[in-house]
Amino acid sequence: MRVLFVASEIYPYVKTGGLGDVVGALPPELIKHNVDVRLLLPAYGEILDSVEKVTTLKTLSGPLYSKKGARILACTLADGVKVYLLDIEGYYDRPNPYVDKAGKDWPDNHLRFAALCYAAAHIADWENDWVPDIIHGHDWHCGLIPAYLRQVQGPKPATVATIHNIAYQGIFPRRLMAELALPADTYNINGLEYYGQISFLKSGLYYSDAITTVSPQYAKEIQLPEYGCGMQDVLKIRSVALQGILNGIDPDVWNPSTDPHIAGHYNGRTLKEIRNKAACRAALLAQCKLNLRSKRMVFGVVSRLVEQKGLDVLLDAMQVILQQGAGLAVLGAGDAELEEGFTRLAKEWPSQVFVFHGYDETLAHRIIAGVDCIIVPSRFEPCGLVQLYGLRYGTLPLVRRTGGLADTVIDNKDKSASTGFVFDNLTVPELAYTMQRAINTYNDKTQWAKLQKNAMAQNFGWSRAAGEYKVLYKSLTKSRT
Ligand code: ADP
Ligand code: GLC
Known about the structure:
Layout: E1 2-6, H1 18-32, E2 36-42, H2 45-50, E3 55-60, E4 70-76, E5 82-88, H3 109-121, E6 134-138, H4 145-149, E7 158-163, E8 171-173, E9 193-194, E10 197-199, H5 200-207, E11 210-213, H6 216-221, H7 225-228, H8 232-237, E12 242-244, H9 271-274, H10 277-287, E13 298-305, H11 311-322, E14 327-334, H12 336-348, E15 353-356, H13 361-370, E16 373-376, H14 386-392, E17 396-400, H15 403-408, E18 421-423, H16 428-442, H17 445-457, H18 463-478
Parallel strand pairs: 1-2, 1-6, 2-5, 6-7, 7-11, 11-12, 13-14, 13-16, 14-15, 16-17, 17-18
Antiparallel strand pairs: 3-4, 4-5, 8-10, 9-10
Helix pairs in contact: 1-18, 10-13, 11-16
This protein binds adenosine-5'-diphosphate and alpha-D-glucopyranose.
């Protein structure tokens, strides 16, 4: 079975969040499950610079490929995955795939990602030797693939659209229909039209043969107005085609017994081993110049600083927690207001709060290994990977009961199986109360160690998810023959 993955980011080359992690880790796992996966990505400089050999497969021209034309390049990534790269001069080689320095969307995003969708749908124009059975697109950037496929003659691949975050929808003015070379009949309420505009995401949701999202709980939530971001009705119509497949984590990149970024190595097999985590904590505190009274708990945050993540509420809940001597290490970049809020907090509590605003892969690993408890108080969370990394590193997650967070963390009220702390309502008192519960548990060393052991015994590798995607792919190809 041949599957063409199409996406806008991939770890370790271009990553802004969990989407990059998924696109980096899932294809190699699918290949292990005998699914022949190849990727189509924008020709990012970071990829071109790091692969050994790049060949030009085809030169393309056409309405979506800009006046200068386009090229399909081919290469193989370090992990052996074969990749096609869409290269259009001036389109993709930018410091951030989506936004400029000021955080504003690139003004030509509609063209950049429509071209990617168009190239995917028209793969037969540039690749005759490898014909996909399935085209699997990720997030709104790939939403137009099934719309463009409507113009393609002859046998067509089945399509899968995966929602990593329904809040990002790729909505553009109607007047761009012609520039985007979209079939006129797609501008329809039963199509990609969304309140008088073009919605890339709605196109993906409406026209794809199957829709997946990244946790079973989020699959339920997005059919409700509170979480559907306006797409709940389309999803209701398509609910038979929708399913949640929980993400995994890359067990090699996030492995406390081999992680090259951290100060001590440990596994979860014995409590004695887990105690080696203390070296990571000590190194982190030293690096962050945190000076805590002994045995005080350290909380951590590794996150995009956006409304979704609920960190404005954490800021307000921190005072009472800091008064008790706890620590906080924050790595995150994004909204200016949130960045300022955390910077102020660190100034006010210099020996207890450390903040770094920027993107830093090494520090992300050090915080996840070094803090005692990783906080993810999201308003919504399609899956969330940070809490899974926390579990693997014996760093107990404290999360809001939503989306993938609800599916992956077991609250400590259920003492025997507990892996962390879960709360329901994103309010300052409830978050502070839950952090207090975590501190109380932390002060009971035997109980804490038991939770750590439970957490580290969880298996969130990609194998289960790859198996579920394979079953889905098979069902789609079967229904066509
Ligand atoms: P989302 O995709 O919504 O951002 P996830 O929890 O799925 O949330 O994934 C976030 C990913 O991005 C994780 O791999 C996390 O370590 C990483 N990350 C987030 N912010 C930063 C940052 N400032 N520096 C380094 N890595 C970060
Ligand atoms: C999105 C979501 C996050 C999810 C990630 C990977 O960015 O916000 O919850 O883990 O995609 O699927």
